[in-house]
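*** Protein under study ***
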Amino acid sequence: MMIKSLLSSSYNTRDLGGIRTTDGRVTAENIYWRSDVPSDPSKADKEKLLSRNITSIIDMRTVEEAEKAPDMLSLAPEFRYYHFPIVEGSGVPESLEAVPHSYLNIALAEKMPYVMKVIAESESGVLFHCTAGKDRTGVVSAIILMACMAERESIVNDYVISREYNKKRLEAFLAAHPEVDRNIVLANEKSMNGFIDLFTERFGSVEHYFEYIGLTAGHAEMIRNKLI
């Protein structure tokens, strides 16, 4: 399997299409793209997004992250750019066991209802991203896929593949931070499986989760109707 980001300006841009659901259906392409920050998109990158009607951009990075490496799509008038800073997930958890709990904190972040509302209600395709496209983006992707009744293995695999896309970035980070346990920053199966367990135990369903964060069960249905 060739690992290649959908955008030349990023490492980890992928489509949530082509993922099998528990009732045998498959998610549609060019509805939701998950990504790391597309900091300097080329003309070809912009044309690719526009040709697929992916014109809503959600940036979940902190203010400091966004100032350090601006998402240049925010300056392109063809795109609608939303910045919903999520502090949770911007740092490294204390241990591998802490990762699922940090992911639950991401799901409960103050700005997450805004993220999910745009994802559900946007009339165009959506690209959502954080810095590396693994943690905050991984949590949002998992919730979208759970709403669509994707197979658990497929949700975990969609998360784990980030370590292949981010291989160069990860090695550079670990070289600069030798004190960090690589198992924590890898997209580890245990991390996503643990999050799904915590999420299911806490909310039971995506519908109940959306109601808990101030949205409606109908928002889960909107996502499902778009993606399947």
Remarks:
- The chain has twelve helices and five strands.
- Residues 15 and 33 are 4 Å apart (CA to CA).
- The mean pLDDT is 95.
